[in-house]
Amino acid sequence: MDAGSGVLLVVEDTDDPRGARVAAARGTVPAAVRERLLDAAVVRRVPGALADGGSVEEVAGLAAYALLWVADTVGPDDRGAAEQGRRATAARAAVRAAVAAEDPGAVLAASESELLRAMGARAVKTRIYEGVPGTDALHAIPSRLPPVPEALQPTIRRVMGECWRTQETWSLAADDLDRVAELSDDRYAHLLLGGWIVDLARIGLSRLLLAPVGAGDDCLGAFSVFRGPDDPPWSDAERTTALDLGHDLGQVVLAARARHVERQAAEELRRLEQYRGRMITTLAHELRTPLTTISAALDLMAAPADGDLDGAAYIRRGVDLMGSTIDNLLVVTQAQAPRATAATPCDVATAARWAVEAVEVAAEAKSIHLGLEVPDDAPLVLADPTDLGHVLSNLVGNAVKYTPHGGRIRVAVVADAAHVRIEVHDTGIGISEGDQRHLFAEFFRSTNPAALEQSGSGLGLTIVRRLVERLGGRVAVESELGRGSCFSVELPRA
Fold it and tell me: Which terms are listed as keywords in the entry (predicted)?
């Protein structure tokens, strides 16, 4: 190869979809070529000299542009190829931006000018086949073109399916309608297509290029570009660009379909949660009514004689336990809903003191030492007073329930610049690592036999987690089986 000539192979830059990178070259890249390429934004980086030879790892779907220079100059054809490559790269980047967009139709509609420049066209239209879920926004992209007759759509869809399998495009010109016969043996279809081409010609469009839109083995639609009667036929490079854009549009469709499925699943979960909440509320009401009747009847029962079994006391304990379970069901359901009122500054020191005082009798019956460590200048927290009360009463109550006779419980309030942390330490039975992974799940009961001896609904810690998260905080646990636990709740300072 002469010193003044060479070949430069450029492929798309996966790190920068707006540009490209030099993949291989033969010869030294002249300064004039390098400046022209940079000015045309075909490549972002053009080394001044490259080793003679080299190879390119083929990557499916990446367009490659081979540029030739001779005697330190770039001819018109080479400049045209470079410009075509730049436009194609810009168009594909614009289409790819729609993959992650919430409204891909709007992004594609806004990228029409890039598509027109890339294809040297006067009009473009993308049609995604009906029945592809989540693509309604793509169907709604406005177009000034006369619509394709619906009776012709099955024929075009069949042709696009074949083009997708063979990775080819299909073109038609108003002065070459013999190709219509390739579509179908149906003369009615010929007439419809001919009439549509005439309608296009009336608005100055006489050349049509169809490229399939697809992903994997499926053809999902068609990408159509149009030119006028004085415009040149479609070049091989433009057909390749159209196929590449069909691949990119296919990814847009897949992303839209995935978002559609995700939204459907989220909506279904929301409906199920609403139904479950209504069902629990109804059941709680129905269960509370007979409990109220039983409780009232117990109040009317005469006290047992000395030495007789106090059956009423057993019944009342059962009624109280059932009432507590119903209350927990209602709280855990309400905790799933958004907070009705805004968080307000709350005195965490007072809330912690009330939670400790509420269990003093139960702790004294088990000879458990209760300790409360609250600094005099404990800051306020942003919370709902009722929610905060539920959280602390559950944690301190659990500590008393699962701490053996003679144990110790310490409730501490610690603050930093942004948060207040409430810690509940105990010397109870502890929690295994396996149980800790499921501890905050609804209705979960420990696998520890010592824990199962205590009655419970398995909802207390679920209530804690949901209320704390609703308050914008977080809850954590550190525990060792047989040595005790520490539950901590962190809430934002007021």
Answer: Kinase, Transferase
Could you give the CA distance from residue 334 to residue 250 in angstroms, rounded to a whole number? 43
In angstroms, the CA 455 to CA 462 distance is: 16
Query: What does the alpha-carbon distance between residue 132 and residue 151 come to, in Å, rounded to a whole number?
Result: 19
* Cα–Cα distance for residue pair 86/75, rounded to 1 Å: 17
Closest C-alpha to 8, from 95, 70, 60: 70
If 0-12 CB within 10 Å is exposed, 13-18 middle and 19+ buried, where does residue 383 land? Answer: buried
Cβ-contact 22, 43 below 8 angstroms: yes
Torsional class of 27: left (φ above 0), alpha (ψ -120 to 50), beta (otherwise): left
Q: What are 414-470's pLDDT values in tens digits?
A: 998 889 999 999 999 999 988 998 888 887 888 888 888 787 777 888 889 988 988
| Cα dihedral 305, 309, 310, 311 in deg (nearest 10) | -130
Q: Give the pair of three-digit tokens for residue 326.
A: 């119903």
Angle formed at CA 386 by CA 380 and CA 388, multiple of 5 degrees? 50
State residue 15's pLDDT score. 52
Residue 399 CA to residue 175 CA, distance in Å, equals: 88
Look up residue 33 and give its two tokens. 């070529």
CA distance 73 to 67: 11
What pLDDT score was predicted for residue 369? Answer: 94
What is the token pair recorded at 4? 């003044």
Query: Which tokens go with 185?
Result: 């043996």
Phi and psi torsions of 317, nearest 5°: -60, -40
Question: Residue 24 has what pLDDT?
Answer: 47
* Gap between the Cα atoms of 357 and 486, Å rounded: 19
Highest mean pLDDT among 139-153, 165-179, 297-311: 165-179
Is 152 a residue whose pLDDT tops 90? no
Alpha-carbon distances, residue 217 vs 123, 163, 248, 275 (angstroms): 28, 12, 14, 40
- Please state at what angle helix 385-401 crosses helix 460-470, rounded to 10 degrees: 150
Do 130 and 221 form a contact (C-beta atoms < 8 A)? Answer: no
Quick check: 297 and 315 in contact, CB under 8 A? Answer: no
CA atoms within 13 A on the CB side of 88: 26
* Residue 78 scores a pLDDT above 70: no
Do the Cβ atoms of 383 and 439 come closer than 8 Å?
A: no
81 Cβ neighbours under 8 A, 6+ residues apart = 65, 66, 67, 237
Higher pLDDT, 101 or 124: 124
Helix and strand numbers, DSSP H then E, in the chain:
16, 14
Query: What's the pLDDT at 286?
Result: 75
